[in-house]
Amino acid sequence: HIATSLPLPSERDHLRPRIDMIVFVIDIKSKYSLKNVEDSLAYVDERFFLGKACFLATGVGRVNCCSIDMNDVRKLGEKYCTPVLYSELELEGTRVTTAQRLLRMLEICADYVPGITALYFNTLMTGFSD
Questions:
Q1: What residues make up the domain containing 104?
Q2: For residue 51, which of 24, 101, 122, 130 is within the disulfide window of CB 3.0 to 4.6 Å?
Q3: Closest to 73 measured CA to CA, from 94, 99, 55, 46
Q4: What backbone torsions phi and psi does residue 57 show, to the nearest 5 degrees?
Q5: Is 27 contained in some domain?
């Protein structure tokens, strides 16, 4: 499921499936994107950041078009102890690789991978994501 911002509308709470992972997408070409993510963070229970969230910075292949300082994205990951993935979604190979990484992270967050918990996975990812 995709949401452009948080909080999610409450009128459909009873129909909403369990949320196993949140990916905060930040388009580095848009200051609004970072602001929207920062505003949305207030609506996420802090326990969710313990292995069930990540930041995905897109558009990193074109640093000359950046509206956001990459250090701001990195600091956001550090502040919330959450991995940051960097990707260029306009390149098909990179898009596929990013999707595969996110899917694997989701499998771990949803407890589909025996022996690896989301919290352990988060510990492995933090510090190795950039």
A1: 19-127
A2: 122
A3: 55
A4: -90, 120
A5: yes
Tokens standing for residue 43: 């609506």
pTM listed for this prediction: 0.85
Q: How many domains does the structure of the chain reveal?
A: 1
**56: CATH:** 3.40.50.300
Task: Please count the residues of the chain.
Answer: 130
- The strand ranges marked E within the chain are 22-27, 53-58, 84-87
Output the CA torsion sign for 16, 9, 33, 69. negative
Q: Is residue 4 part of a domain?
A: no
- The answer to the question of residue 8 being in a domain is no
Report DSSP state, residue 18. P
Is 10 within the bounds of a domain?
no
Q: Between the CA of residue 14 and those of 17, 80, 120, 123, what are the distances in Å?
A: 8, 29, 31, 33
| Tens-digit pLDDT profile for residues 47-105 | 888 888 999 999 887 667 778 888 999 999 999 988 999 999 888 999 999 999 999 99
